[in-house]
Structure prediction request, 416 residues.
Amino acid sequence: MTDAIVLSNVSKSYLDFSLSDISFSLPKGYIMGFIGPNGAGKTTTIKLILNMIKRSGGRINVFGLDNQKDETEIKLHTGVVFDSHYFFEEWTVKEVGQVMALFFSNWQPALFERQVQQHQLPLNKKVSQLSKGMQLKLMLACALSHDARLLILDEPTSGLDPVAREELLELLTNFIQDGERSVLFSTHITSDLERIADFITFIHEGRLIYTGTKDDFVSAFRLVKGGLEDLSPEVKRDLISFRTHSSGFEGLIHAEKIGLYPNLFAEDATIDNIIVYTYKGSKTHESNH
Amino acid sequence: MKITLSNFSGIPIYEQIKEQIKAQILSGALTEGEKLPSLRELARDLRISVLTTTRAYTDLEQEGYIATIQGKGCYVLGESSELLKEQLLREMEQGLISAIKASRAAGLDISEVHKTLDYFNKEESND
Prediction:
């Protein structure tokens, strides 16, 4: 079994939102960044993987097992971190450890103690008294105290300062050292991903835009800039979207089209550039119809 | 092994790693048989993707600079590597071809090229 997660044509319909035909796979031993603007369906997808909500169609395998039929087995080896904690506010750090031990038959108290010490979590403080960063560390400590082979993190870096984000990145790169363990990491702070992610899955308005290696993703686009006089109808047509200002324009273009315009200044696009201009492009097309 | 990555150089990260390891092997800073950090260690230490280090190592392996021994790690092959010798031979041939082209464009006789070659050879060995 070489894939940690496989989604095949997964869909979920709500009255006002639907996730349609999402397929991607995360090979074991790697980190995948899961990106898209707010409301794209990232959290819905993660909840579907964890079987917290029922899918309307498609198939989801984790460790090669069906995520509904084999949910218990999968959960034993999956660590989960959300952007806000899932503990009772009144529990102390120590009590969180005791409660977790009831849920996980493979819970290792010694591992939990070590994590708590390493992150300097105060054992007798209540969850409600911990800072946002500390609550995240507590969730991570729980995720790493039961032999997880898969870490799923939903927006873990929002609300963290740069020092705490750096610590998290270090932890994730350490986590995958043995080549057996994998990470799915949803975030909108893409500078973190720019560095450590091996794969990127990009969804927008419930649809899959891209899934594949990060390097291919970034090199599929170029950021172009020029004066307003350079913005010919052909250039406008070929740009995914653009913005103009008093002294020129900036836009995103598919890398294979840049050869048509040797006069335009082009540079590497960041993941942020790609998300922003793709989002803007989809809005412009809507308003044109 | 020493690697310094720039995020602003415009050169892809895997290329920077590859060129720096290559330069250290050719200069003798990395010697034959020396063990390199594993793909995952290097990715962790540099805080970059494992696929990026994989690409750099794969290229170095194809060009004969390093070898991967399954389950043991990556090692410097050094100058005794046949592949590396071939690679260097090709580089030398390319250099000579461009020298000949330039001399023809300048209207020089081939004997001038021979003389210049001997001159630089002497200079280099005096260093």
In short: The longest strand of chain A covers residues 3-13.
